[in-house]
Specification:
about 650 residues, alpha/beta, eight-stranded parallel barrel, six-stranded mixed beta sheet, 21 helices, binds 4-O-methyl-beta-D-glucopyranuronic acid
Length: about 650
């Protein structure tokens, strides 16, 4: 595999600034993001011959903060006025976002076709959560579920000694629209627990690195910190000493980093400590931290990923899919105003296909965040091309109460956040697979405008990453990426049943790998059929956690969408899908088709050889070889497994082992 040492520029190479850098530009604004705008413009002009104008001088582009600006507001108005392009921002952060909007539009930002309008983010909080460990974890490594090398933030047990790389990362994600970064893993181990107190200087240094790009730093905290750090013998959220410990500790955080964003907590989940130890509720736990943060105008994000990971597989009544709603829905209305409940998009765990989590519709009086996973834990680990925005748009555009009615993005945007687990690392291509950069880019863009078309987002990303590459490369990348999520779905676990991955690492097929384990992720395949009965009538009752119409749609085999059939129903192999084919034949057909599509992708990439940097080409080519090997392995294991279980041959007589 080629290992170039130099870092590749992702979506902001100098040439992405050509249209801007060749012009006369006036900047009017104060504060760190405005200074960043000035230095970005200076750099672009140095490349392309433009210049910064004096106040009052005639300019091609005016970037100004409106006199009536509100601190913290990120919106801006972009228009053409008397032959100039004008960005009028609500505040310095808006100036920065306005600048990047102009960069995205390139020459079109300076043409008469530009329609004047206001731009503002749908989600006020647009976050990348890093699952980065400070100390390398013996099992999970430096970055939990990280597929891009080491952490971009931490190395050898301390803050990375590479501020330029961190700053460049801040620049990239700010340009996509991100405004918050959580700097450590939600599984908070011992060294990381200390970031809150005696290692606060490292957090403050990170806040300093991200600040110029309008990004606030958040910290994952350990619920048991008062005990682990040795100050108290309890972490009971209703104990006055514990409450004052958090208040006092939080004051010190703000003394050193006044624009600190807030805490993120994974409690009572997969072995992390939490309020259950003290017989308290998750509202008690979250509200304690909220009270400590409120005087500083900061928030706590509290994760809803709470389930029993020590379940007995013989117990058919416990359903992991139900857990989050069972735990949290009864607490609706009890959380303080500065608590945001952070909910994974699906009820299980970042699978390739899941229904949208019902927690998102069960808590109208709670601020909510939708959590996505840019790191491809279950979607090919950045060895497979898997462009995720089509899935994400489906989640954000889902109408919980049917249409018309609000979409998930409307529900969550009102007071909440869009969050994604970052896929970045110290890899020269940032994300291991160069094409996985587009997922990172899209997080910010969809958090700003959830209704953007995924193909249009990809177009933007291509234009910024390979400026001037032209139509042939654009076509090849769309062919490889637009449907890559559906392709991945085709050759892996069928019809929404999920998992079937190798336990632990979660890469590659192992159909029964989790079937008799405590993790609650079962498919229940037997000689007659496959799938999980989650109906209210005969199953676990999960379908009833949805409001109408979905509770009814999912409850019945007749109306359940094909792609989620095995998530909600256990059906015979000869059950006929809406598509007209049987479940078993669908399994064979999609697995043959998926692997074939990957072979086509690998061949098509050869046409790009002269169109991109040879190092990028080689890295993608290597990964496509592995994707094809893996897709064929998936195809053969899944097809063989279901042929042996069912005894039903492939109607088309293809090779099954
Ligand atoms: O998907 C699972 C992962 C864990 C992760 C957990 C979570 C950080 O396998 O590695 O832990 O989700 O979201 O908390």
């Amino acid at each position: 595999m080629s290992q170039p040492s130099e870092v590749h520029p992702a979506w902001l190479p100098p040439s992405a600034f050509r249209a801007l850098g060749s012009r006369r530009i006036r900047i009017d604004g104060q504060g760190p993001p405005a200074d960043t705008v000035r230095s970005e413009v200076t750099r672009a002009c140095a490349h392309f011959g433009g210049r910064i104008c004096a106040p009052g001088e005639e300019a091609d582009l005016v970037l100004a903060v409106a006199p009536s600006s509100e601190a913290g507001s990120e919106g801006f108005h972009l228009s053409r006025q008397d032959g100039s392009t004008v960005v009028l921002a609500d505040g310095p952060a808006g100036l920065l976002h306005g600048l990047f909007e102009v960069v995205r539009r390139g020459e079109a930002a300076f043409g008469p076709g530009l329609t004047g309008r206001r731009h503002e983010p749908a989600f006020a909080l647009r976050v990348l959560d890093h699952w980065d460990n400070v100390d390398v974890h013996p099992v999970m490594g430096q970055v939990e579920r990280g597929y891009s090398g080491g952490s971009i933030l931490w190395q050898d047990g301390r803050l990375r000694d590479d501020p330029a790389r961190i700053r460049e990362y801040a620049r990239l994600v700010a340009a996509a629209g991100i405004n918050a970064v959580t700097v450590n893993n939600v599984n908070v181990h011992t060294a990381e627990t200390h970031l809150l107190t005696d290692r606060l200087a490292e957090v403050a240094a990170l806040a300093g690195a991200f600040r110029p790009y309008g990004i606030r730093v958040h910290l994952s905290v350990n619920f048991a910190a008062p005990v682990i750090l040795g100050d108290l013998d309890t972490a009971d959220p209703l104990d006055p000493a514990v409450r004052s410990w958090w208040a006092h500790t939080t004051e010190k955080v703000f003394a050193i980093a006044p624009d600190f964003g807030g805490y993120l907590v994974k409690a009572d989940s997969e072995g992390q400590p939490g309020p259950f130890t003290y017989g308290r509720t998750h509202a008690d736990g979250a509200n304690m931290l909220a009270a400590a943060l409120a005087p500083h105008g900061a928030i706590v994000r509290w994760r809803a990923f709470v389930y029993n990971h020590r379940q007995d597989w013989r117990d058919r009544s416990t359903d992991r899919a139900r857990a989050a709603c069972d735990h949290f829905a009864p607490l609706d209305g009890e959380f303080h105003d500065n608590v945001i409940l952070q909910v994974k998009y699906g009820p299980m765990d970042f699978q390739t296909r899941e229904p949208v989590s019902p927690v998102l519709f069960a808590m109208p009086s709670t601020r909510l965040a939708v959590e996505l996973q840019a790191t491809q834990e279950y979607t090919g680990q950045q060895r497979h091309v898997c462009y995720l925005p089509p899935m994400w748009s489906g989640v954000l555009g889902f109408h919980p109460y049917g249409e018309p009615g609000p979409a998930v993005a409307d529900v969550a945007a009102s007071g909440g956040a869009l969050v994604a687990v970052s896929n970045v690392g110290d890899d020269p291509f940032w994300t291991g697979h160069p094409l996985a950069q587009a997922n990172l880019y899209a997080v910010g863009r969809l958090a700003w405008t959830p209704t953007l078309d995924p193909a249009a987002v990809l177009d933007e990303c291509i234009a910024l990453t390979f400026p001037g590459a032209g139509e042939p490369l654009r076509e090849i990348l769309h062919e490889l990426m637009d449907d890559s999520w559906q392709t991945y779905e085709q050759y892996t676990a069928p019809l929404g049943v999920g998992f079937m991955v190798r336990p632990g690492r979660h890469y590659g097929p192992d159909v029964d790998g989790y079937e008799y384990t405590p993790w609650g992720t079962y498919h229940f395949a037997d000689r007659d059929g496959v799938g999980v009965d989650r109906t209210a009538a005969t199953g676990t009752g999960f379908a009833a956690q949805y409001p109408r119409p979905w509770s009814e749609v999912y409850e019945s085999r007749a109306t359940c969408p094909d792609e989620l059939l095995l998530f909600f129903h256990h059906v015979p192999y000869d059950h006929v899908l809406h598509s007209g084919t049987t479940v078993i034949q669908h399994i064979y057909d999609t697995h043959f088709a998926g692997a074939e599509r990957v072979a086509g992708m690998r061949d098509r990439w050869r046409d790009a050889v002269a169109l991109v940097d040879p190092a990028v080409h080689a890295r993608v080519a290597d990964r496509l070889d592995e994707q094809l090997r893996s897709a064929e392995e998936w195809r053969d294991q899944i097809n063989t497994y279901f042929f042996r279980k069912s005894g039903i041959p492939d109607a088309k007589g293809r090779t099954i082992h």
